Amino acid sequence: MAGSPLPGDRPGLGQTLAWRLEAAGFALLIALLRALGVERASAFGGWLLRTLGPKTGTQRTVMRNLRIAFPDMDPAKRERLAADQWEQTGRTFAELTMMDRLTPASGRIEIVGAERLQAIRDGGVPVVFVSGHLANFELMPAVILAAGVPCQITYRAANNPYVDAMIRENRARYGVKLFAPKGGDGARELLAGMQRGESVALMNDQKFSEGPEVTFFGQPVNAAPGPSRLALRFGTVLQPMSVTRLPGVRFRLTVHEPITITPSGDKSADIARGVQAVTAFVEDRVREHPVDWFWVHKRWPDAVYAALESSRF
After folding, report:
1. How many angstroms from the chain centroid is the CA of residue 159?
2. Are 38 and 249 in contact (CB under 8 A)?
3. How far apart are CA 51 and CA 65, in angstroms?
4. Which of 1, 2, 90, 217 is deepest in the core (most CB within 10 A)?
């Protein structure tokens, strides 16, 4: 998307026009996908990215990630997995335009561990929900909010403010109204929300340039310390969740056993333990259903990719 202006700058006429044209195209895409309905839109998105994804430069990132995670996997199987994950990603992107039709009331979501959400709702103590980009990851906030748990959902705003407004409006259709943007302002909003008794939900599986160094698929990565820091500060648990895609645009959402970080007196060590626990949780879910993960982003540091290029596997 077209770049946003620097803070304090007013967008020029050309930038505003580009944004509006971009937003018009985005609105048309949403309308077309919604007109297709859930089944056909999901299938179309899957077909489109399965066809085009392998032809993009991102395919190299996908294959490198798969080699890092599964060095002993047969190359032909890795190729099939790469194609399959493109289809899953395309399905998810198409489904994001109609999440109001994929709520628990739709009958398309099997919820395992729903009693944990009920306990959080009734207990009055906020928790820190954590997960990764697994299958249709947007189902997680939809299920949390449908269970009656007040929750702040973090998000990264689109560069185009008109597109961003449409995304927020679309999410509001299925109950996502408490947003906390990523960054310093968002961190303050999360703190304020938890002080009010609201839970927070964060993804913890993308590249992070700072934070504790932990292990992911046997390789070092830096991971965001925010979820663990919040859990320690408010004396609460990290509540992992995951989503698995089932046939027929159906899903299994699991509310897992909570992760408790017991304070040891060494705050840095406690945070690092929490970060490793969340990272291990994501790795376990990816190993169970590798096709469901978002393989298209560079998760590992440059040094790991450099070592991969010089290796024989």
Report:
1. 18
2. yes
3. 20
4. 90
Cα–Cα distance measured from residue 216 to residue 128, given in angstroms and rounded to the nearest whole number: 21
Give the residue among 175, 222, 163, 162 at the shortest CA–CA distance from 201.
175
Helix (H, G, I), strand (E, B) or coil at 237: coil
Of 241, 261, 263, which is closest to residue 252 (Cα–Cα)?
Answer: 241
What's the CA gap between 189 and 169, in Å, rounded? 20
Q: What is the pLDDT of residues 212-250, one digit of tens each?
A: 899 999 999 999 999 999 999 999 999 999 999 999 999
Q: What is the helix (H) or strand (E) element at residue 112, kind and residue range?
A: strand 109-112
pTM attached to this predicted model: 0.89
pLDDT at 173: 80
Tokens 């406690």, residue?
270
> Is 136 exposed, middle or buried (CB count within 10 Å of its CB: 0-12, 13-18, 19+)?
buried
Q: 210 Cβ partners below 8 Å, 6+ apart?
A: 222
Separation between Cα atoms, residue 288 and residue 271, nearest integer Å: 26
Identity at 88, one-letter amino acid code:
Q
Dihedral sign computed on CA atoms, order 30, 33, 34, 35: positive
Alpha carbon of 41 to those of 31, 97, 98, 140, 282: distances in Å? Answer: 11, 9, 9, 20, 28
* Nearest of 176, 186, 122, 124 to residue 145 by alpha carbon: 176
Q: Which amino acid is residue 76, in one-letter code?
A: A
**Torsion angle of alpha carbons 162, 163, 168, 170, nearest 10°?**
120
User: What is residue 216's three-state secondary structure?
Assistant: strand
Q: For residues 89 and 147, give the distance between their C-alpha atoms in angstroms, rounded to a whole number.
A: 26
162-198: buried (b, 16+ CB within 10 Å) or exposed (e) per residue? bbbebbeebbeebbbebebeeeeebbebbbebbeeeb
Question: Residue 133: which pLDDT band, with cuts at 50, 70 and 90?
Answer: very high
